[in-house]
Amino acid sequence: MSSEIPASRSPNKRGADLTERELLNEYIGAIPQDRLIKLRAELKDILGDYKHKYFFEALLISLALATGRTVEGVLEFSLKPNDYEYIDNPANDGRRGPFLWVIQAGGEKLNLPLPESIDYSARAVLRGKDLEILSDYLPKSSKDWGQRAYEWLSQHVPDSEYYLRIKVRDTLARKIYEHSANTAILTLLVTERHQWRRVESLTSYIDLACKQTVDIYKDALSSIFGNMGSYPPIAHKKSIDVTSSIVSKVARFMRDKVVESQHDFIQYHNWVARYCLMMMLFCTGHRKSTTPFYFPWDIDDQSQFAFICDKSVVGSEARFVPVPDIVAAQIKAYKLHLIDISEKLKDTSPELSRLIHRLGLGGDISTLNDEITCCGHFGMFFTLNKELRAKTISTKDLEDCCAELGNLDVRELRSVIVQYFYLKDKSGMQIEALLVLARV
């Protein structure tokens, strides 16, 4: 049966690029749940007795399951805090607290608690010395420790050493995916650092150094080891402060501009249009574009859905996105505002007035040939200059008009919405579906 595992899935020390099929718990290369339950009971019994014949084998297998790597990868696990990934060993310098798997995530450290059974046994092994990698703490052996560990494991999960490496290594990935459907977490925890550049897009947007990641990891470990034990809370971000984010700053800035320009109907319109478009960009996660929400029918404020076409990849270039109540109400008000503006322009620019009035009604201005010949074509969200020429607002225009706030990048808005949904316990698949994020 193990021969059904693709030959390309070599037993590297850490897994990467697992397919959707391979991430299923029912996959042929996974440890069956009933065997996993029996295995964790055996591991717990052995790790509770430091003098047990197979204590070190059980410790190595447990660490491999808990950190998503082969036993060979565990033997090379760093214990030095200056590495981007290491096991924090409080027993080495007399500190209190749990053993932690520490990973550099962006500019911060992500502290992941290991199961209580591993914590207890590690204290008995990793103490009294200041060595660099885990294998340095193991007693001398005439047989390779990796081979010894797999031989012991084969008594509980019958298979060859080759396939046991793969099964042990990928167990954590499967459990994390089961609880989160989030490939970005797999990239951070079970993928070699040099492979990060060629994986899915979600990693580029999401900040994983937060409590949500720790909770997902603990849930995954509970599926593998059962009761994790009790731990003191670990300080990580629990929520995103939207009030201090770039979104809030931009919103306040634009609202102030709308108020300041009330006595100049052209500038007033320009800032109202920018503000409404910015609201749509944020709530939908729209990418950079020269013509965002160009047609009136791109936004259905009655059904509260928006049609977005912001990718050049065939097959995933378009999507429908729900629009919140407050934004839908703002779009309705914007359309009424367009009708009001068209009334003000009736005498000075009747052709432009008719085009804007048609947009306010949600109609197609391309049929107004004479008016377009005179004024040009423009989209739902546009600005007017002093000569009353209309220009479609692009995302670059929005970035430029907010220059007073520093370097605004529309991509930051996508990052904020991704982080918000992640901390609200939305799965990776839900976030990817909303923003059409690719996996390569």
Summing up helix and strand content along with how strands pair, one would put the structural category as mainly alpha
Mean pLDDT: 87
Strand order, biggest sheet?
1-2-3
How many helices in DSSP terms?
Answer: 16
Low-pLDDT runs of 5+ residues are 6-10
Order of helices and strands: HHHEEEHHHHHHHEEEHHHEEHHH
The biggest beta sheet, please? 3 strands, antiparallel
Cα shape? elongated
Distance between the termini: 29 Å
Q: Fraction of residues in helices?
A: 40-55%
Number of domains: 2
Q: Taking Cα atoms only, what radius of gyration do you get, to the nearest Å? A: 29 Å
**How many E-type strands?**
8
Assembly state (oligomeric):
single chain
What amount of the residues lies in strands?
5-15%
Give a structural overview.
It is a single chain. This protein has 440 residues and is mainly α. The chain has two domains: 2-225, no CATH class; 242-417, hpI Integrase, Chain A, CATH 1.10.443. It contains 16 helices and eight strands. It has helices at residues 33-47, 55-67, 71-75, 116-125, 145-154, 161-180, 183-190, 211-225, 246-260, 265-284, 325-344, 350-360, 369-375, 395-401, 410-423, 428-435, and strands at 85-88, 100-105, 108-113, 299-300, 305-309, 318-322, 382-384, 390-392. A hairpin with a 4-residue loop joins strand 4 and strand 5. Helix 1 crosses helix 2 and helix 6 (161-180) packs across helix 8. The radius of gyration is 29 Å and the shape is elongated.
